[in-house]
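pasting PAP2 superfamily protein for the record, 288 residues
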Amino acid sequence: MLGYFGIMAVIVAVARNRLPEWPMLLAGYALAALLLLALAAAMRRRPGSRPVAVLRFAAPLLVLPFVYSAAAETVLVLHGRFVDDVVLAWERALFGGSPNVAAVSAGSPPLTELLTLCYFSYYGCFLLPIVLYVRGREPLAERYLFAAMTTLLICYLGFIAVPLAGPVPATPELAAAYKPSGYLITSLQNQIMAAFDPPGACFPSPHVAGAWITLLSLRRHISTRARLALGALTAGLTAAVVYDWYHYLSDVAAGLAVALAVHFAIERYAARKPARQARSRVLQSSHR
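structre below
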């Protein structure tokens, strides 16, 4: 995560003429880095303290809200504008229309509520690593947190590469005509999106990427029932982001690609690690 802070600090410094809030952004990244370093130092001084260990482990999650909002502040530094028109034209050429409109063609308020509930379940991804850690499954929790953070940070960098305002801000007339209605959960989620989901945080979809890296990271380490439930929620969330007009289908494909790529890279590294350790032991034995 410190590496990401460094990358973003350089981007903010270079593009400061386009970022009126650049001093606050740099200060925020510096404070977030200091927090991580301070907790790492506290862990070294008090290695037996369980509260310190839990807090050090949870530190990336604690700074993630700032990291997300700060990333959204920088989305226009490369292109200087949102490029929804390009993505919309590409999707219409490929699919013959808008996937967002097509997704709600057979919708209903109960279906909207169900899919939005799946989308709402995404917030549980941020609690799962802490739950695993405090229940004594530290290695799994650390691998999962590393995979999730890597996936999300790649998505945040993607916001700059392809800045999208999103289906509702980009096509307000279509959204007014086709955006589905639901009940309590739908209303709550729409309020959350209006308050905390800034324009530009679309491509790749961090919700899709985060949900899929959760499923991929945990599927072999949980019960069959939990795996089926997690798979159903992930599938529902993947459909919901288009159905609820939160993302384009392109965002979904990109988010899924990021999760698959990160999972593949981590799995390859884990598979090679025992071989490297075995070679190291052989070399050490040969030098005795």
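DSSP finds 14 helices and no strands in the chain.
The longest helix spans residues 249-286.
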